[in-house]
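PT: before anyone asks, these are the final sequences, not the draft ones from last week. 824 residues across everything. Please model them as a single complex and drop the result in this thread when it's through.
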Amino acid sequence: MKQNISLEEAQEMLLANITLPEERQLPLIDALGKILSQDIVSQQNIPFFDRSPVDGYALLTSDTVTATSSQPVRLKVLEEIPAGYVAENKVTPGTTIKVMTGAPLPVGADVVVKYEEVDRQGDFVFLSKPLKFQENVVYAGEDVKQGEVVAKKGIVVSPALVGLLAGMGIASVPVYHPVKVGILSTGDELMSIGEALRPGKIYDSNRYTLQARCLALGLEPVMMGTVMDRKEQVADRIREGLKQADVFITTGGVSVGDYDVIQDALKEIDAEILFWKVDIKPGSPILAAMKDQKIIIGLSGNPVAALLTFDLLVVPLLKKMMGREKYLYSKIQGTMRDGFKKSSEKRRFLRARLMLEDGNTLVKLTGIQNNSALKSMMECNIFVDVPAGSGPLKPGDIVSAHVMGNIDYIDA
Amino acid sequence: MKQNISLEEAQEMLLANITLPEERQLPLIDALGKILSQDIVSQQNIPFFDRSPVDGYALLTSDTVTATSSQPVRLKVLEEIPAGYVAENKVTPGTTIKVMTGAPLPVGADVVVKYEEVDRQGDFVFLSKPLKFQENVVYAGEDVKQGEVVAKKGIVVSPALVGLLAGMGIASVPVYHPVKVGILSTGDELMSIGEALRPGKIYDSNRYTLQARCLALGLEPVMMGTVMDRKEQVADRIREGLKQADVFITTGGVSVGDYDVIQDALKEIDAEILFWKVDIKPGSPILAAMKDQKIIIGLSGNPVAALLTFDLLVVPLLKKMMGREKYLYSKIQGTMRDGFKKSSEKRRFLRARLMLEDGNTLVKLTGIQNNSALKSMMECNIFVDVPAGSGPLKPGDIVSAHVMGNIDYIDA
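LR: through. Structure below.
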């Protein structure tokens, strides 16, 4: 068992030896938000055929070379083609076919002129200036070429991708099965919401926070409830949960106190302890273990520490387990809008919000930074990474930060 | 009916006279992703009581004033309190109570010293230096004060909020009912995915794109299928859809061509046309109408134009209808990474991706910008707003952009 390791070393140990979930084929719309398990290769060109992007007349550019307003060129209109239909005629010199937006370009034509730019008289149109070759024509394959990879394995199926695949006629999509995450809260002090609070007790919030985080990430939480600080009870729940879950998260009981039973419970079920304590603040007392190829992570019982370390350390693991190609956080640089008074003996992560102002990235701390302030996680979309040995931070200081998952909007 | 109006004027007309959805009370975890319909006011302090954030000894600061390593202060340990329990004794001069992380601060005590900083011998501990008043004590209400508004009506219930509310013992939450969005595709050229494509036809992608967009936004799509360009058929579907939906979106048939039947269909059902054509590119031929206090919006049939105008113009409407407090887009400034060769006679929106590099906001166009390229929407998280009358854009040019909905991650 390693102790007091760096965040990066802990991350690396967790990310080693991941097995990807099984695949399945889902109807297109059901695949929304899931992770592609195969590259999607286009079987055809998109658009399928050369087409007109405007209502107008398809004709030959060469017919228009001599056109002037005093000597307009006259072309015979052979027929009219709405979108969805194919012309019966070919366009030959001296002729044109009226095409509606989306209609296939008739054979022979190499340009389309908008209907408002010609003078229609009976079966004829008159053009008073030359046209540019291929103007107003969308060519087959302009968006996607046959054989092209339109979406890579490991990306989240987005609404735009759903639309793109629908346009290719793809009715079902290969995606990964969801990853199941066991969640267990431990602590004699915990009561369930809905119960009347007894003296010295608090409501268990971690199970809900982690359940919600997992749901929002597209994971399948397996709720194992709340259990008191008794080695045997904790061991039983973990053993039980591991039967259903692919990975298991506990909160509480990972410190050094006499009531910190997670480590003992893990020994009880013969799990191999990978590491204990990561050298960051808050949330240092993280415990990671492995049992039957499944990872078990014990997080702090403190709500802020639990959520912060879940986000920092566990989310990349879960994303990799889900099959996501991009599972590590992006890092950015930003300018502190406010200061932070404390020195940081240990490496410290501050909850903050990224704001964009006049093209600059500003970092605004989201409220007080002590461990009890779960409120500070509400607006948080970045974690400022303050190196060990740093003094207080001043407004204007440049800091680096980890960009957390979904950023709903950016404050402008 | 207004014609050729600005995006802002169109937006304003749509946002006028919104009625908010009904409210309902949902179990906390089911409220995730929904919109709060009431401010949430805390009924108590969080934490509920003064507590120790460390394993240690609770005592009186005044007892430690004279403590030195040569003359340590000796205190009698009265009892030991795990988290979840309350001390039977009070701390009086000369005494201390051992407290575990999360335990309530015993009456009388005003400071906690970490257990590793004292010397324990039998029933006594020895302190060799003075302590700082209130150190290692988390006071009641430090995170949330009784009577404080912890979450405002109109925000999305996030995982952190779920956790915060759970910590307050809140088991159910008032949220708005989901808004129902009718979606109808029109066009003779459209076929359904799964069918074999006939000449001149294309697969209907808009219904899937919009359905997916609505689902991702937490809306309830009411799928009205695909219908040919026949006034009566379109009118029937809209009439039918309006019985179930709160707002209705069509794609196709809004241009000036002979087959553009939406306007006629809307007249057929006695809808009041609000405006036709918005002065932007792409997606100009947008039609908006009102029938029985319900808004009907006809978008272009072109996949890119449909999605772009849905995002730009319709999403703010839908967000406001959902009860979201923030429904307008943020605007940012950024630096063009690449150029854009075309001049823009009309106001033009370019699909792009926001990237943060060394503290700067860079704007990267997401592929070719013609109307057929739905692929360009996949990576898109901002729309660059190019004013009418602009020339080509050069790398390094400063542009302004609308930040679209969810930004999954920012490229660093």
